[in-house]
Design brief:
5-stranded mixed beta sheet, binds magnesium ion, 11 strands, D-Maltodextrin-Binding Protein, domain 2, 9 helices, binds adenosine-5'-triphosphate, 2 domains, 6-stranded mixed beta sheet, elongated, alpha/beta
Length: about 220
């Protein structure tokens, strides 16, 4: 019997994917926040879940260690998307990628002057492409978290980060000065697995697509 392995990250993605999976009839046997297990069974004997770091989800699916997974567009752009199908926008994890600066930083002037900009971000690839398309010289500094600190400490002039309510920026005296793109999470699939396990995979993808449509209509 063919089995399906689903890669998910803990936290926001897991929490927001859960109702979609439930609508597709799939229920994890354990809560990854409570359990230390990294492989979690489900009510469907042939489906199991892998709990991995958000930025590792595309890697597991690309190499076929997981058959499918859920990853943010932010993560997929950094990964590059090689060896992945992206059949479905799940419309969860919605936020935007934006440029933010310290309040009072002369962003307009700095764009106009076209000088070098120090940019701190977790999203080096996306940020590089964004500034290069604008014809701006950006020196990129890779960070792994707490990006809000960078402009406050003088590490960088601006950050590129995900923004939803803007409360974190506000609490740190930062302002979003430019939107880069809207972000949401996608279903990603290993192409070989889709071929070999089509009988198992296709109904699951269809059920998730239906769940997304129903959620949108609600
Ligand atoms: P790690 O904790 O492994 O470093 P992470 O901090 O990126 O990863 P999360 O904060 O759970 O993990 O984010 C996972 C995904 O959720 C992101 O890749 C993004 O697509 C989405 N996301 C992140 N922040 C927000 C937000 N404020 N609003 C909506 N979606 C978000
Ligand atoms: Mg995190």
């Amino acid at each position: 019997m063919t089995t399906l392995t689903f890669a998910l990250s803990k936290g926001r993605i897991f929490d927001e994917t859960l109702p979609l999976l439930a609508a597709a009839g799939l229920h994890p046997a354990e809560d990854p926040e409570q359990s230390r297990k990294l492989i979690i069974g489900t009510n469907m004997a042939h489906v199991s879940m892998l709990i991995v770091r958000a930025s590792d989800v595309p890697t597991y699916v690309q190499y076929g260690a997981a058959d499918l997974g859920v990853a943010g567009r932010d993560v997929l752009l950094e990964h590059g998307g090689e060896g992945l199908y992206q059949p479905l926008d799940l419309e969860i994890g919605q936020c935007r990628m934006a440029v933010a600066t310290r309040r009072g930083f002369d962003w307009a002037g700095s764009v106009q002057r076209g000088g070098r900009l120090r940019v701190a971000t977790k999203y080096v690839r996306t940020a590089r492409e964004h500034f290069s398309a604008k014809g701006m010289h950006a020196d990129l500094i890779k960070l792994y978290g707490s990006m809000e600190l960078a402009p406050l400490t003088g590490l960088a002039d601006v950050i590129v980060d995900l923004v939803s309510s803007g409360n974190t920026l506000k609490a740190n005296d930062l302002v979003a000065v430019e939107d880069i793109m809207p972000i949401s999470s996608r279903l990603i699939v290993n192409p070989a697995a889709l071929k070999l396990k089509r009988d198992r995979m296709q109904p699951l993808i269809a059920a998730l697509a239906r769940a997304v449509r129903e959620r949108r209509a609600a």
